[in-house]
Every structure is written in structure tokens, then in C-alpha cells.
Design brief:
The complex is a heterodimer of chains A (257) and B (228). Chain A has 257 residues and is α+β, with helices and mostly antiparallel strands. Chain A is built from 4 helices and 14 strands. In chain A, helix 2 packs across helix 4. Chain B contains 1 helix and 17 strands. Chain B is rod-shaped. Classes of the chains: A alpha+beta (257), B mainly beta (228). At the A-B interface, helix 3 and strand 4 of A face strand 10, strand 16 and strand 17 of B. Strand 4 of chain A pairs antiparallel with strand 17 of chain B, so a sheet runs across the interface.
């Protein structure tokens, strides 16, 4: 008779779980579920322009990302772009950063740094001055606070020898979705000095997502070598789900690993 | 004889009547030779003298009656020369004179008087507006509106007090070539509209703008692939 009790108990448990009301807002299978939309500020700069504008921008974005108002919801990426017009070199400039900038700003005449995109180019803050830039960034980020997202991203990173391993999950909340979006992983390094806290070192476009069912969870694992990084311990990853084939290139969701 | 007498009397009466009518028909209207005001342009509530020179072909005596449609007032509106006091506002006003002869023959004429205050034109920046944030990249278009009753000689736009950005002599007052690339910080723009013929008289407006500095990023040159 003894083995019967665990079997009955498990059956009851199984029945109970199946009959659970899906009213947990964080349960992807709940039709009314959502998560808070995090904000990513993608700032395009060059540290050798001969002007201070990029410095103003970097100082401002690093400052406001620490403000309690944003409650760790404002993530920052500092893309150093190659500036061929400059006599000087920015040691952190990457061609990949230029390519990402060109995707945001296809019109050559409109390209000028510093240039910041907040969750895509719909909320764009270009240029900087000592007097205004902190206010402009704050207003831009504030305008995106408290929005709902029907995508969730969670995960972790682990350093293994000279590599970083990323494991993360993309979940669809609320209802099924069809569209075209790209998962983008950006590795950045915190060099430990002001204006160099979120220096982008690698951009890894992962794959295109075209549909997700309600409650579906996709998992990803990624390992990336870190030879050229100054401080592997200070490597972080930002994962973004970004709308494709749309001028604003909206970020549906973003998370820091 | 009685019949002839009657005919004679009737004929005489008729000729008197005809002569009277001819006399009446032949009264010619006065002719206005000139009408002037001196000075033709005065300040508000200043006085100018209006004069008319007219003559009557029949030599009749002429009377003069001036009208100003209730704008300003004549000290006396009778006589070939009158004094008119301008109203308390500026504008271009007509003074009319009617010249009448003894037989009610009439002629009329008008002359315009410019009444100008010492106020300059009303100048307004329509672009940029006060405290506008301008991205310091490329060329920015400045637009200025000028409201004034009199001709404008030119509109100047200055960056601060020392740097003349442009001069425009024709409406619309617009400058499309302000190169804001690499400018940064707060800048005061000043627009001045100068009145034609009065170089000391101008209207002015100013706006504070904030230029957010940028550095243009030219496209990277694509490496040659060698492919045809």
C-alpha cells in the first residue's frame, strides 16, 4: 500500500497545476502578462574629434544611468565609431560600430556624433552641449519609462578561461506574435574610468525571429573569446530584441547579463 | 398786324429763353491745376499744409471745401490753403478738396499724406524660436517676419553683436545657409529690419538658441573588391 500514496499525491499535484488560473502577470502563458520595458541608450561617439561634445555626452549618459529614477532600467552602450575626417585615432573605434550607426542613420548628411538612440531611433538625441545634454538625455529616457513589453529576456554570463559564456532566454508574453526582429548581443567593457564605462567591444547579431507563440520561451547559449579585452572581469553583455526592416528600429526588449 | 405783333413778341421771348439756356449750358466747371501738401510726410499729430490751385474758365469766383473722412482734422477746411493735423496713429491718409464755382460747377481732387510715427518695424523670428535647441550639423534656415506699413530697406541677422550672418533686401526674409556644424553652446541671434530712407530707424528682435555640437561622420570608404 505504501507506494500508492506518492502516486496519488503526484497525480493530485499534476491535476492542480493544470487547473491553475493563469493570472500571474509574470507568467508568459497568462494572456494578460507583460514585463516592464527596459531602456537602452546607444550612444555613438569618438574620443578623438578635437571637440568636447562627445565627452559631454558620455559624462551625461553615465550620470543619468545611475539615477534612482531609472531604477537600473536604463542600460548604456557607448559605440566608438571610426572618424575618417579626424587626424587622431580612437583606440576603441570599431568598424562594426560604424555599421550599426549607419543602420540607424542611413542618410550621410544626418550623421554626426555624439548621437544617441533610446530604444531605437524614434527617440534620438543628437549633438551635445555642456548646458543641455543631461536634460535632453533625461527627458528622452523618461519618455520611455514605465512602458509594457510583451517580450522578456533573462539570462546570465559566465567567464570560462578566456571566454565568456552567455545563456539567456527570450519569452513571449500576452499573445502570439509575428513579425521580423533580430536578436543582437553586444559585449561591452567597463574600463573603470569615467566616459569609458560601457565601451562596446563586439556586436553579435544572432538570428532573426519571425514568430513566437504565446508563452513560448527560446533559449540561447553563446560563447565568445575575449583575447583583445583589457579587463575580462569587467565584460558585460546586453541582449536586445530589435525590430527589423523598419526605419525606427525599435527595441522590443533589452536586458543586461 | 395783331398776328405779326404776337409773332414778334413770341420770337423775342423765345430768344431770351434760348439765350438763358445757352448761358446756363456754357458754364464750365473749375479746373484744378495742382494739389499739394507740404510736407507730404509728417509725424503723428503734426501739422501739414494742403494747397490747391484751381481756376475757373468762366472767371467765376471759386470756393473750396476740404474733407479728411474724419481722420485727423483741419484747422479750417475752407480756402485754397488749409492746415491739417494728423491723427495719433500712423498711416497713409487722403485729403480731398471740392472746388465749386458760382454756378455750382465742381471739380475735386485728392492728395495723400503719410503720417509716420517714430516706431520702427515689428520684427519677429519665426525660425528659430526662443530657447530652441538646434543640432549643430549642416545648414539651418533662419526666417524673419517684418510687419511695417512702409518700405523696408533690408533685414540683417547677427550672431551675437559682432558677427553678421546675412543681409536680405527682399521678402521673404530667409537665410538657408547658416552653417551650424561644429558650433556649440548658447547663441544669441539678433534680427534688425531697417526702414527705407531712414537709416536710423529699425526694428529689432532676438532669440536665444542652444546649439548642440556634433562632429560629422563621413562614410567609411568601402575596400575595393576587384570584382567587375
Amino acid at each position: 500500500m505504501k507506494p500508492i500514496f506518492p502516486v496519488i499525491s503526484l497525480s493530485l499535484l499534476w491535476l492542480t497545476c493544470a487547473d491553475l488560473d493563469r493570472n500571474n502577470p509574470l507568467d508568459p502563458k497568462n494572456a494578460g502578462s507583460y514585463v516592464d520595458q527596459a531602456i537602452v541608450a546607444e550612444l555613438f561617439v569618438n574620443d578623438s574629434t578635437g571637440y568636447d561634445y562627445c565627452n559631454y555626452a558620455l559624462e551625461a549618459i553615465e550620470k543619468i544611468s545611475q539615477q534612482a529614477e531609472f531604477n537600473q532600467q536604463l542600460l548604456v552602450l557607448e559605440y566608438h565609431v571610426i572618424n575618417k575626417a579626424s587626424q587622431h585615432n580612437d583606440p576603441y573605434a570599431l568598424e562594426a560600430c560604424n555599421q550599426r550607426y549607419y543602420e540607424y542613420v542611413p542618410n550621410t548628411n544626418e550623421r554626426g556624433i555624439p548621437d544617441a538612440m533610446f530604444n531605437g531611433s524614434a527617440t534620438r538625441v543628437q549633438g551635445a552641449s555642456h548646458e543641455q545634454i543631461e536634460l535632453r538625455y533625461t527627458e528622452a529616457a523618461r519618455s520611455l519609462l514605465g512602458k509594457e513589453s510583451y517580450f522578456g529576456i533573462e539570462g546570465s554570463k559566465k567567464l570560462i578561461n578566456n571566454s565568456v559564456q552567455l545563456k539567456f532566454w527570450l519569452a513571449r508574453y500576452s499573445s502570439s506574435w509575428e513579425g521580423e526582429a533580430t536578436l543582437v548581443v553586444v559585449l561591452y567593457e567597463d574600463l573603470g574610468i569615467p566616459r569609458y564605462r560601457h565601451v562596446v567591444r563586439k556586436i553579435l547579431p544572432l538570428e532573426t525571429i519571425t514568430r513566437m507563440k504565446q508563452g513560448e520561451v527560446l533559449s540561447f547559449t553563446l560563447t565568445e573569446a575575449l583575447e583583445q579585452f583589457s579587463y575580462p572581469d569587467n565584460i558585460f553583455a546586453i541582449v536586445m530584441l530589435q525590430r527589423r526592416n523598419h526605419p525606427a528600429k525599435e527595441i522590443y526588449q533589452v536586458a543586461k547579463l | 398786324m395783331k398776328t405779326y405783333q404776337l409773332i414778334g413778341i413770341a420770337g423775342l421771348g423765345l430768344s431770351v429763353l434760348v439765350c438763358g439756356i445757352v448761358d446756363k449750358l456754357e458754364n464750365r466747371a473749375p479746373m484744378i491745376k495742382s494739389i499739394t501738401v507740404d510736407p507730404p510726410e509728417i509725424g503723428i499729430q503734426d501739422t501739414t499744409t494742403a494747397s490747391v490751385v484751381a481756376e475757373d474758365p468762366d472767371g467765376d469766383e471759386l470756393s473750396y471745401n476740404w474733407e479728411c473722412s474724419g481722420v485727423g482734422q483741419f484747422i479750417s477746411n475752407l480756402g485754397s490753403t488749409v492746415k491739417w493735423i494728423a491723427p495719433a496713429y500712423s498711416g497713409r491718409f487722403p485729403l480731398r478738396v471740392k472746388v465749386t464755382d458760382e454756378n455750382n460747377g465742381k471739380a475735386s481732387a485728392l492728395v495723400m499724406v503719410d503720417v509716420r510715427s517714430d516706431e520702427g518695424p515689428v520684427v519677429t523670428f519665426t525660425r528659430p524660436v526662443e530657447n530652441e535647441v538646434i543640432i549643430g550639423l549642416g545648414f539651418y534656415t533662419i526666417q524673419v517676419r517684418v510687419t511695417y506699413e512702409w518700405p523696408i530697406d533690408r533685414v540683417e541677422v547677427w550672431m551675437g553683436a559682432d558677427s553678421l550672418l546675412f543681409t536680405d533686401r527682399t521678402w521673404p526674409y530667409e537665410f538657408t545657409q547658416w552653417n551650424v556644424t561644429t558650433l556649440s553652446g548658447p547663441i544669441l541671434l539678433i534680427a534688425k529690419a531697417y526702414v527705407a530712407g531712414k537709416p536710423w530707424l529699425y526694428g529689432v528682435d532676438s532669440v536665444h538658441v542652444q546649439i548642440e555640437g556634433t562632429v560629422p561622420i563621413p562614410k567609411l570608404q568601402q575596400p575595393a573588391t576587384g570584382l567587375q
